[in-house]
Amino acid sequence: MTVKTLHIIGCGKVGRTLARLWHEAGLFSINGIVNRTENSAAKAVSFIGAGRAIATISALPPADLVMIASGDDQIESLCSELAKTHSLDKTTVFHCSGALSSSILKSAKQSGALTASLHPVKSFADTADSVKTFAGTYCGMEGDKEALAILEQALHKCGAKTFAISPQQKILYHAANVLICNDLTALMEIGFQCYERAGIPREFAVEITKPMVAETIHNIQTKGTACALTGSVARGDMQTFESHLQALKDWDSTYAGIYEQLGKIAMDLAQQQKRMAA
Questions:
Q1: Domains in the chain, start-ordered, CATH in brackets?
Q2: Which residues, other chains included, contact 72 with Cβ-Cβ below 8 Å and sequence gap of 6+?
Q3: SS3 content of the chain, % helix, strand, coil (to 5)
Q4: pLDDT per residue as tens digits for the range 37-96
């Protein structure tokens, strides 16, 4: 059986992770890699262990699949350039954006390509670690049936799990990912700054909160958000909540506003918790 060839346009952390996994599993033959600079593309080739750096999209030879793993604001223009310079009949063109649907690839579709989007629900902070921990990752998928069949098989063979996303609701789906991952990181940064202002060094704050953070995530995943809620709001101790809020206002009004808005959501959860316990 002939291994399908794959080009990558915009080979950053996600692109490198997927390409290396697929290369090591012998699922796709990694071919051309186009990045902003040839040096960046060469580094991607080195990490993946396959492929070759190509200077421009127009210089890419024909391939069975093309993955556009660039930033969201570049996907449409990169796809248009690909469609202008290549015959894409029966080629599978897909992107890895969580916010955009495959309709952004309309120029490729108009040129005869099958199109899809593939979004791993995963944090790609370190590419080498992402390769090691990718098995078990859920990937949201939407697009042409034939394209999805190829991509789902490749993902499943790397240990990933796939699920369907509504193209019309992708932006809200992606906002959910950002709230749970990126904004959780930002919220913890606020917390660490609070610790520092209270005289506790950041390094120690990170250490002492590890068990609490792990327990909180575990409780959310096993009991649900309402039952996982603890602390002053869950106990109905609004005097402590107001004291927290005032202390934050005296220091940083933006952080106080975030605390107040999150507190309102926590109050709703506390009410749910009480109803469940009744």
A1: 4-167 (3.40.50.720), 181-277 (1.10.1040)
A2: 97, 99, 100
A3: 60, 15, 25
A4: 999 999 999 999 999 999 999 999 999 999 999 999 999 999 999 999 999 999 999 999
